[in-house]
Amino acid sequence: MAARGPAGPDPKLSDEQPARLKARLELGPAAAGYREDQRWTLARIVALIATMFPIRVAITTA
Quick check: 13 and 55 in contact, CB under 8 A? Predict the structure, then answer.
């Protein structure tokens, strides 16, 4: 039997989108408008993904 890879749904992001997202995350929360608290939260990452790409993900997906 040949391995088919990990089980589960297909990735929401294309092959190049995770690198773009990582670069934006490395700029820090202040660069995304979160000046009061310098921590990335799942909710903030979901919001960032929604502004960067034409997809919506749930917090459980992020």
Answer: yes
Which helix H or strand E contains 17, and what residues bound it?
helix 17-26
- Pairwise CA distance, residues 12 & 14, whole Å: 7
29 contact partners, CB below 8 Å, separation of at least 6: 35, 37, 38, 39, 40, 44
Cβ-proximal residues to 50 (8 Å cutoff; 6+ apart), any chain: 56, 57
The pair of structure tokens assigned to 13 is 């992001």
Decide: pTM greater than 0.70: yes
Nearest partner of 40 among 52, 27, 58, 51, judged by Cα: 27
Q: pLDDT tens across 3-26, in order? A: 777 777 777 888 899 999 999 999
